[in-house]
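ping. complex inputs:
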Amino acid sequence: MQFSSSLLENAVSEFAKLPGIGKKTALRLVLHLLKQDTGDVNNFSEVIARMRSEIKFCQRCFNVADADICSICANSLRKQEIICVVENIRDVIAIESTQQFSGTYHVLGGVISPLDGIGPDQLTIESLVSRVQKEKTEELIFALNPTIQGDTTIYYIQKKLSPASIGHPLNLRVTTIARGIAFGGELEYADELTLGRSLQNRMPVDKYVSG
Amino acid sequence: MQFSSSLLENAVSEFAKLPGIGKKTALRLVLHLLKQDTGDVNNFSEVIARMRSEIKFCQRCFNVADADICSICANSLRKQEIICVVENIRDVIAIESTQQFSGTYHVLGGVISPLDGIGPDQLTIESLVSRVQKEKTEELIFALNPTIQGDTTIYYIQKKLSPASIGHPLNLRVTTIARGIAFGGELEYADELTLGRSLQNRMPVDKYVSG
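pong. complex structure:
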C-alpha cells in the first residue's frame, strides 16, 4: 500500500500489528478515526495508554484490577472460601457474565504445557497452594479448558495439595465444571470424546439442573 | 460483559466504538495490548493521537498530507497536468497501489447524493473547477464508483467546466476509467448492467491492453 502521508502510514501499521487486523482493516479503522473529533481520538489514545500503564494484577487472585486487590476479592458479599481456578482473565469475564458464581477466582496465567515451554513455575500455582492453606478454602472449582494440558494442570495442583505434599490433610472439596454435550448442541455433531465422556459421567435426572 | 477493572472496561468500550469491532473482539485486542510492553502500547497510543492532530489535507488536491501540499502534488516527476478525480483517500491509495498512474489527484470528499444530504457545496468541486482553469489541466480522469451518484457528479462537474458556464472553451480531455467485466471475472456471474454496458462500450482488439 502506498501512502501520501507518513502519519497515516504509521497509524495504519500500528493498527495492523493487532491480532486479526490486516492492512486493509487497519486503514479502514484509521480513516474512521480521522473523521472523528480530535478530542475523541485523544481520549481513545489516552484510555489505551492509561490502561496499559496503570492496570494492576490482584495480589490475591491475579485477576486484572484497578488497585492492589481486585473488586471481586474486595467484595465481602462474595464467598471468599470458594475459589474458581481459571486459565486467564477472559475466562473470569466469561464466568462473571453467567452471573451464576458468587465465589472468588484464581487466575493461573495459563496451563502446564511442556511443548510450549510452560512449566508450573511460570504459573501462579505456588500462590494458589499457599492461598488455599492460609485462607482455609472450602472448595476449589477447576474451570480449565478440557484439554490434556488442562487435565495435567488439575492433576499437578491436586498432587501439590495432597497430604503427602503439605504434610497434613486439608478439609477441601475439589471439583471441576461439568463437561458434556452443550445446551442446544446436537448429539450427532458432538465429537466422540465428549459424547463418550458424557455417557461415563451420566447423572441421575433428579440431580440434574436444566438451563 | 462484567469487568473487574474499570481501566480495562474503558479500553474495551473505546475499541468497541470502532466500525466492525464488537465487544468480544475489542476485549481480545485490549488483552493483546495488555501483554505488550508499556513502551510499545504508549507508542501505539501516541501514533494514533499524533495522526489525528497533525495530519493535514493537501491544499491543492485534498489528499491527506504531512505538509500543506501532499507528497504526490509536490513530486515534480508526476504529470501535474493530468488530474484523476476520486471520491476519497481510500481510492487514492487503491490507484497508487496499481503503480499505473503518474498524474495527480483531486479528492472530492464524496459524491453528489441529495438523499444523503450531500450537495455540490459539501464537496471540493469548486476548487477543482478553478484548479483546472488556473493550472491549464490537459486531462481530467474520473475514477468514481459506477453508481447513479457517481454519474451525477461527473455530469455536474462537466457542466461546470463547459464553455456556457465559464465563458470560454477549455482545451481539456475528460475521460472515465474503463468499466466492464473484471479480469478473472466470469461472464455468467456478471450483473446485467455491467454486461450490457460492456457490450455497448466494446473496443477494437488491437487497442485493447490486456492485464
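The first helix of chain B runs from residue 6 to 15.
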